[in-house]
Amino acid sequence: MPTLLSPSPVLEPVGTDRTTEMATKAANDALFERELMPHIQSLYHFAYRLTGDEDNANDLVQDTYLKAYRFLKSYEQGSNAKAWLFRILKNSFINQYRKTSKEPGKVDYEEAEMYLQTGKAAYADTLDGGEKMFRGLIGDEVSRALSSLPVDFRTVIILCDIEEFTYEEIAKIIDIPIGTVRSRLHRARKMLRELLTAYAVSMGYDPDGSSDD
Amino acid sequence: MKHQERVGLHREGSPYSEQECEQIISKLEQLLDGELDSQKAAEVNQMVASCEYCFEQYNIERSIRSLIKNGFKNVMASANLVKNIKDSIRRSRVTDEQPRP
């Protein structure tokens, strides 16, 4: 029986011909440059929001691109390069920065709930008129509120609201079911809304005096 | 508990029951995220337009999104990053090309 007819495994170095090798390399470089590098700004932004720090963000993005280059074979040309890169980055982040945390990749709901207690009292009274109230908030304050969200919640917010990935893409990037994407987004936005409300109140917004304009 | 808070705020004069409003509101996020099919989206949009309470919730959801977008701007990657990435790839290639022991 001819058992040796199957092609050699993909990971085996293909041929020894120097010219072919160089041509492949040049093609890979071009692909890398054309399809992957254009996403650097988005990746950096994501990395910065995850790590909260320029140096770590730079390391994370660099590491992501290095991995992407090494695993270029597993990237299908013309497919969703951005989502692929985000997935690599998010995995690197988990491996590097969360090794020491109790249960990497899992949302600590208890922590999130406790965290919510802060804004709850203010929220209950001021849900009404929230839109008007948020108007006075500026970028810095919002940025601070966003950075204080637990990382799993921050992640879905960034992927959905900033990068405008679909629920399906987000599910693939962070390896969770679509239903979980939806519920996590909902919780994240709710937290944010409560935080911002509490913040607006602490800044002197009077929820009862909403008779302006 | 949360439900009661919301119900307490439900406006009189809305053409919808509290449960209907709850249902509309639960779809607002998907609507704004572009995750509803066009028929469902049109339906929710129409309901939002005819209920003051739902409309207000819709506006709050929208303003949160625009706050997020504005609050997250202005973080630019440095020009060095591109250079460092290319250097690190070049270095990794050199290592790969070295004969194995």
Task: Explain how this protein is built.
The complex is a heterodimer of chains A (213) and B (101). Chain A is mainly α. In chain A, α2 crosses α3 (54-70) and α7 crosses α10. Chain A has helices spanning 18-36, 40-51, 54-70, 81-97, 109-126, 130-134, 139-147, 151-162, 167-174, 178-202. Chain A contains ten helices and no strands. Chain A is elongated, with a radius of gyration of 23 Å. Chain B is mainly α and 101 residues long. Chain B has five helices and no strands. Chain B has helices at residues 2-9, 18-32, 38-49, 52-71, 79-97. In chain B, α2 crosses α3 (38-49) and α2 (18-32) runs parallel beside α4 (52-71). Chain B is elongated and about 80 Å long. Classes of the chains: A mainly alpha (213), B mainly alpha (101). The A-B interface holds A 25, 37, 40-41, 43-45, 48-49, 58, 61-62, 65-66, 69-70, 124, 127-128, 130-131, 134-135, 137, 139-143, 145-146, 157-158, 160-162, 166-167, 182, 185-186, 189, 192-193, 196 and B 5-6, 9, 29-30, 33-35, 56, 59-61, 63-65, 67-78, 80-82, 84-85, 88-89, 92-93.
Keywords:
heterodimer, A: 213 residues, mainly alpha, 10 helices, 0% strand, elongated, disordered N terminus, disordered C terminus, B: 101 residues, 5 helices, 73% helix
Describe the SSE topology.
The complex is a heterodimer of chains A (213) and B (101).
Chain A: H1 18-36, H2 40-51, H3 54-70, H4 81-97, H5 109-126, H6 130-134, H7 139-147, H8 151-162, H9 167-174, H10 178-202
Helix pairs in contact in A: 2-3, 2-4, 3-4, 4-9, 5-10, 7-10, 8-10, 9-10
Chain B: H1 2-9, H2 18-32, H3 38-49, H4 52-71, H5 79-97
Helix pairs in contact in B: 2-3, 2-4
